[in-house]
Amino acid sequence: MNVFRTTLLMAALTVLLVLAGNAMAGPTGMKTAFIFALVMNFGSYWFSDKIVLAMYKAKEVTRAEAPDLYGMVEQLTRKAELPMPRVYIIENSAANAFATGRNPSHAAVAVTTGILQILDRNELMGVLGHELSHVKHRDILIGTMAATLAGAITMLASMAKWAMIFGGGRRGGDDRDGGSGIAAIAMMILAPIAAMLIQMAISRSREYAADRGGAEFSGNPRYLAGALAKLEQGAKQIPMQASPATAHMFIVNPLRGVGIATLFSTHPPIEERIRRLEAMRG
Q: What residues are labeled active site?
């Protein structure tokens, strides 16, 4: 179901790009924006592991340096039929974790010292299983594709805005041109918001899928459910200083949002995630 939903959302982003491109900048403008967004996002995708690990000062550990953590990742990768990823620890009292890497052969799993302190072994297995599920299902690639389409739409809106400021958007004075101008303005305002909402919905869908995968790899949905409850409380007590550009990578959202801001959250509500995991026990 999550795969089907992700496919529909990606299709919606593609349709939105085509409609917005034709309304705001025409086929040429749409192609230009898409190519620029493609280059930027796939550049970051190719080097995502190095960039984000350096950003959070993650230190790679060996079996000798962190035998328990390394052994758990190794056990889970065998069950998930994945290559062994690199294992990192981040010196940070906030409890969180993420996975990165452009494919399963170039993957890395990182955990904070805070998460190692508050979770027991079973709960940590659930968290690591969640992150390895992201790796197995290539969620970083899916996220990059969504970011490329959403970025192209946002870039189109910016191009259209500057074209209107400098008069490039005026193509004539008849009623049809006036109508198309109004449509372009509407697209300029609404399309980037719609693109962001769809992109966030894709991210939330992949989180649900990773929760299910984490429960399967660790062997018990209660492990991850218990971990999420602790991590939610931990995030309230010790929030993590994280970049909005990387917030979607963490198992729990390090950025807090209330009210309408939750519409733009990259993560589904913890309560709903726990409810779905509890339902798996049946």
A: 131
